[in-house]
Amino acid sequence: MDLPLANPKNINFQNHLSGHAGGISLRMRKRKHIRLTGFDYSSPNAYFITICVKNFLPLFGEIRNCIVGFSEIGNIAAIYMQNIPELRSNIEVDEFIIMPNHLHCILIIIENKEADIRKEKVARFGQPVEGSISVIINQYKGAVKKWCNNNRFENFKWQSKFYDHIIRDKKSYNTIKNYILNNPPNWQQDKFYL
Length: 194
Fold this sequence. Notes:
It is built from four helices and eight strands. The chain is α+β, with helices and mostly antiparallel strands. The protein has a single domain, classed as Alpha-Beta Plaits. Helix 1 packs across helix 3. The chain is globular and about 40 Å long. Residues 8-31 have low confidence and may be disordered.
């Protein structure tokens, strides 16, 4: 499969932490921007995503002998991840792994002319862009949380943000895919291991 990989020439790698307005400094709490400024996260590309359970609690299951054993919540997280392409025809879940307290996946947004036309009509500053990685992940997180609320797991919470990495080339893609596949055997060395 040919991956829709980002063109580094079209990416603005600057993060803006503060600004000026008419010579007056806007002193704001410095907050790390975790998304690339100016990048269209609804564009056809491959994205590496990591989503964590709040406080890194091992609510998705446990690893024994390098095999992930799912809890009920972990099972639902896996099923809902597999179902993303059924709900969004322009999304492919290339690879994913549910770990005890987080998950990794490669999501691929494929070209969708209808979505592009809709996006042009509704994209406004500061509002979520339909079909963007943020909207897809927030809907996924919301669906898992809703299931938890309806099934005696009201205390389940996600961390409010998620990590993304735009996959720019085949080498990066292969490295990330290998990382995902080898995450369970390397669990005790993982930065999320508690």
